[in-house]
Design a protein that fits this description.
This protein has a domain of 133 residues: 3-Layer(bba) Sandwich (FAD/NAD(P)-binding domain). The chain has six helices and eight strands; from the N terminus they run E-H-E-E-E-H-H-E-E-H-H-E-E-H. It has a two-stranded parallel sheet with strand order 1-2. It has a two-stranded antiparallel sheet with strand order 3-4. A two-stranded antiparallel ribbon has the order 5-6. A hairpin with a 2-residue loop joins strand 3 and strand 4. Helix 1 packs parallel to helix 6 and helix 2 packs parallel to helix 6. The longest helix has 18 residues. The relative contact order is 0.17. The structure holds flavin-adenine dinucleotide (FAD). Flavin-adenine dinucleotide (FAD) binds next to helix 1 and helix 6.
């Protein structure tokens, strides 16, 4: 019998699982693809490794805080180096675009600029309620109106990740895991007998 069952081993599920295990809950994680990562999973093919999702390391302090809350130091686990350019987009006519944090260089490469709204994602890509990254932040899906991180009727069913509070992107999902951990800790305190052992 597990105290907490987590469905989905994306960043949200993994971060929530690690936090709750650290607090003494017995945690089990179920993942339908058989490998962790979700939208930041890796694909290996023909000797190459592809990042399936997140490219940019944003809001480093949220990563550091997650490690710190787990009693670890981020520097002991990650060897972070700036990659310049962040990545290169190749076009069919052999031209390319370097994505770089150097705004002047970035601007010099730009010939046109287009702004996409949630309605464009809906109309062009048929993403009815949002974006590729989870629910969009339209007026009916932000703040209190965003799906809450606990089920209205089932008090022991919680939601973590990019389509609940506070929103999308790896650092924000790490914050989501911290919020869910705080809520579970308050509403369902860990049994004193439970000791979490992770392998
Ligand atoms: C192309 C792309 C680029 C991005 N770029 C960035 C970036 O540069 N920087 C950044 O910070 N963020 C970026 N993001 C966003 C970031 O990757 C996501 O917000 C974050 O990874 C979402 O994590 P999550 O845990 O909420 O959801 P997910 O990663 O979707 O995890 C959900 C998991 O649940 C599993 N699952 C679903 N249903 C079931 C079920 N019934 N039973 C068991 N398991 C189930 C899925 O297989 C998956 O592993 C990008 C996303 C994409 C797609």
């Amino acid at each position: 019998m597990h105290d907490v069952l987590i469905i989905g081993a994306g960043i949200g599920g993994i971060a929530a699982a690690a936090r709750l295990a650290k607090l003494g809950y017995r945690v089990r994680v179920l993942e339908k693809t058989g490998a962790p990562g979700g939208r930041v999973a890796l694909m290996k093919r023909d000797g190459y490794t592809f990042d399936m999702g997140a490219t940019l390391f944003l809001m480093p302090q949220t990563y550091a805080q997650t490690y710190a809350d787990l009693g670890e130091r981020m520097e002991d686990h990650l060897d972070l180096r700036r990659v310049e350019p962040n990545y290169r987009v190749h076009f069919h006519d052999d031209t390319y675009l370097d994505i770089t944090p150097k705004l002047v260089e970035m601007r010099e490469q730009m010939e046109a600029e287009e702004t996409l709204m949630p309605t464009d994602y809906r109309d062009v890509w048929n993403l009815a309620r949002g974006t590729a990254f989870g629910l969009s932040h339209n007026v009916l899906q932000v703040g209190y109106l965003r799906p809450q991180n606990r089920h209205r009727r089932y008090g022991n069913l919680y939601f973590v990740g990019s389509s609940t509070h506070p929103g999308t992107g790896v650092p924000i999902v790490l914050i989501s895991a911290a919020l869910v951990e705080q809520r579970i800790r308050k509403e369902h305190p860990a049994p004193a007998r439970a000791v979490a052992v992770t392998h």
